[in-house]
Write a structure and sequence with these properties.
The protein is built from 6 helices and 9 strands, in the order ββαβαβαββαβααββ. By secondary structure, it is α/β, with parallel strands linked by helices. It has a single domain, classed as Vaccinia Virus protein VP39 (Rossmann fold), CATH 3.40.50. A 7-stranded mixed β-sheet has the order 5-4-3-6-7-9-8, sandwiched between helices.
Amino acid sequence: MGDLYYGLPSVRSVMFLLPPLYWFRREAANLLLQTLIRINPKRILEVGFSDAFLTRRISLALPGSSIVAIDTSASSVERAKALRLPNVTFLVDDFFEHRGRYDVVVSMHVFVLFDHFKALDKLRELAPIHLLTLTGRSPFTILHRSFHRFMTGIDVHIVEPQTYRALAERMGFNVLLYNINSIERSYMVLLQKKVPP
């Protein structure tokens, strides 16, 4: 029968997923952080911080920056506030409802949960630069997608890099793509709003 039985992940598939997910997440966080340090923004919005894995690293690397980190989970926000990061404000908020102006929006593997057209439209309101990590199609991401849907009821929107680039360019962004991990088919997108001539 394999690891999936009627769409439900087996214990074996869950054990297979956990170590690589941490490894992939660390690789994604390192690339995002290196790029943020190069940009050196003063006002940062992080979307979907979860356990503040990336937030803590940004806070330490850019102590002069002001960071607003939003998540829809009230319990995640309460746990994160206990970290007492001096330059971070943690808020319970929905990305599509959030208001504010920032130098950069950053998000690690959260935009895979959004409709890409709607998310790009919202990003235009918030900042001129955006750093997002996404995933293309691979055996690993197909397995992870089934696992995520089973655990949360939320689908993962896998998108190939060139497909995402074409959509973002049609919506008025300059796009740079950076490979993160070929097993996960993860990549980072640097989006900049095009300036009219």
